[in-house]
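Title: Request for sanity check on HMA domain-containing protein prediction

Description:
We are preparing a figure and want to confirm that the structure record we downloaded matches what your pipeline produces today. Could someone re-run it with the sequence below and paste the raw structure tokens into this thread? We only need the token string, no images.
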Amino acid sequence: MERKIVIEICMPDQKSRSKAMETAASFSGVASVTISKDDHMEVKGIGVDSAELIDCLRKRFATKTCGCLQKGKGYATLVSVEKIKKLPPKAAEPK
């Protein structure tokens, strides 16, 4: 079943955004990765281990120069995990 995982991660510049996308896209089963303006990364895929993804992002971004650490927010937190339901195609109605 396809899932949508939303992760809040501290990404102060474009380099860290591209590094986060590259890290998430390298996981097996990931179909798409998007980043919104409020530092939320959305990962869609089948069989993606969200705990392992968070752990990998935390290891990759474990720096004390990030502004989020000074605020006490952390640098990668899991916001939500949802199942994506695909609707079956509608049958053509006879005229």
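Thanks, this matches our download. Strands lie at 2-9, 30-35, 40-46, 76-83.
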